[in-house]
Amino acid sequence: MKGMTIIVKKTTQLIAGMVFMYGIYVIVHGHLTPGGGFAGGVIMAGSLILITLVNGGDFLKLIKEESGTTIIESLATILVITIAVSGFLFGTKIFFNNFLPKGIVGHLISAGVLPLYNIFVGTEVAASIFIIFLSLIIFKEESKE
Amino acid sequence: MNPLIPLFVVIPLAGAFLIMIIGRFIEEFNKYFTSLVLLFLTCISFYFLFITGENIFVYKVGGWEPINSVPIGIYMVMDGFTVIVVCIINLIGFLSAIYSISYIKRYTAGNYFYALFCLMIGGMNGVVLSGDLFNIFVFLEISVISSYALVAFGVESNELEASFKYQILGGLASFLILFGIGFIYWETKTLNIADIKQAFSSGYNKTTYLFIQILILSGFGLKAAIIPFHAWLPDAHSSAPSPISAMLSGIFIKAVGIYVIIRLFFNMFAVSEGMAVLITTLGTISMVIGVFLAIGQWDIKRLLAYHSISQMGYVVMSVGIGMILLSRGAKSEIVSLAIAGGLFHLINHAAFKGLLFLNAGAIEYTTGTRNLKEMGGLAKSMPVTSATSFIASMSISGVPPFNGFFSKLIIIIAAIMAKFYLLAALAVLVSIITLASFLKFQRYAFFNKSANPKNQNIREVPFPMVFSMVILSIICILLSLLVIPEIRHTILSPAIDVLTDHLKYSNSILVQ
């Protein structure tokens, strides 16, 4: 059995989901409370890193995950740019224009495109921090041999 | 608001991430896509060159209008000076991208190369177009971090060492710049360059002001590799893949270094004589010392890298002379002549130094060495490389009728008219030593008898590389047309007007 002891594993299994949920909470409430895309993305990446470290195993097999995460990261960035450009296409022809209806201040669905930016920035940050972590552990494993 | 302005940043950024996704599934997508993107950007940058003229276009990102005439949004500014730098960034970038189509076969991971390439272009366009200090910093970091990765692209030990050195000094520079920006924000409570100018003109704390100027000058001086800050440049520029060296030397140090220094010291700070003398001195020192460091080199790319320091010294010195004269309230003709010389040399340097690095890359591509002593007799086997590098060498050494001659002539005439006889004499001397070192390059690389038997069956480089080199050498010859007063007037005068008229920039931005 690879990785850490069963106690650590069980605790992590309980915690990691909650950490991930908390990251999502910070992201979707980004336009209402402190935090937002970046902070929430880092929290989400934290839960992923926790699971990877605790379960251990053969890190070299993670190369597949690394390339998948790269695609998610690039896709999130392109979506951010797409929303920015769609401000260009709809309405006043201004880049980064907030073209959706603003809603009522304080409601979860309000502030136009800001929550969408937060969601994609959060995905991007989570993916890129996870990639950095994966590259480092894969490199460490490779240099051992 | 001209809707095309943000495209200079959006298209390369989107292109970089599209390459990372689609390039995985379609081979060869990255090469042609990058070239197409840069061709499009070159077209719209030349479109702006024709329509800008005396106008100053302002683009408010997100449509945030100023409140009580205080700018609150992010401003992108396109004026006469910006448009020149944008044109050379995208043109040299396009030719380097074409050149890389063949050159990149030496490396694996083409997707990463082209994605970083696009990010670097996007970052540089952003630095040049941005109208506020913090976005200058953000885009500077985008382009600088991608250049760290590109310098280390070959992952040999010397490349990693060069990249590490570059990262340390680049990180220091970013720290100094951010510290300076922080102080400016503390003093003026704003980050928009035009607004800062207004805030400074209504009074400031003298000590803090001087401290900010020194921080900004040393921070961007590190990026521009002016002499006391030059240590990273020869290693970084010679270790990078050749198209990237052409980009770094041809446009990178101008866009993130010289451009920002000129822009901030003319349009944001009030022109003061002390600072102007300091800038001129730094320029003169790097002009003289750079060439003496260069002449002893036997590695072609190191030789070219040291010459970049020296030629940038010409630009900084000439603009500095203009600044001194401006602070003394001298005649406006001499001021504009000095600044015109500097800007003209900046454009010329992008063309011939880009070409020289592409030549060096072609030589390295065929012979596999960068050491001048191991080459020789390449003129017969590589006629195009030989001819184009002859044009570039004569341009950089200031031999008529190539472009370098005219810009150096204007700089020397301006220095004499401003009664800086010593600087004029030094400029002539440095030009002669430059000629000597490029004659050495020509002799050992192309005309000497080959000592190495391997060099017998060398053939010319593939078509994309030849194409870029030929186009750049044509540009080198055509740029000498800028010396004709009418053409110079239409292209350089708007830039000079923006720089010399110290209120025009801030007033016309804040009005819009």
Structure description:
The complex is a heterodimer of chains A (145) and B (512). Chain A has helices at residues 6-28, 37-55, 63-89, 114-144. With 145 residues, chain A is mostly helical. In chain A, helix 1 packs antiparallel against helix 2 (37-55) and helix 3 packs antiparallel against helix 4. Chain A is elongated. Chain B has 512 residues and is mainly α. Chain B has a two-stranded antiparallel sheet. The longest helix of chain B is centred in the last third of the chain and has 36 residues, at 332-367. The model of chain B has no long low-confidence stretch (mean pLDDT 88). The A-B interface holds A 67, 70-71, 74-75, 77-78, 81, 84-85, 87-88, 92-98 and B 1, 3, 6, 10, 13-14, 17-18, 20-21, 24, 59-63.
**Contiguous uncertain segments of 5+ residues of chain B:** none
Overall pLDDT metric of chain B: 88
Shape of chain B: globular
Name the assembly state: heterodimer
Into how many domains do the coordinates of chain B divide?
A: 1
Give the N-terminus to C-terminus distance of chain B in angstroms.
Answer: 9 Å
Q: From N to C, what is the helix and strand string of chain A?
A: HHHH
Instruction: Specify the number of helices of chain A.
Output: 4
Shape of chain A: elongated
Largest sheet of chain B: 2 strands, antiparallel
* Structural class by SSE content of chain B: mainly alpha
How many β-strand runs of chain A? 0
Order of helices and strands of chain B: HHEEHHHHHHHHHHHHHHHHHH
Question: What is the rounded Rg of chain A?
Answer: 18 Å
**What share of residues are in beta strands of chain A?**
under 5%
**Strands of chain B, total number:** 2
- As a percent range, the share of strand residues of chain B is under 5%
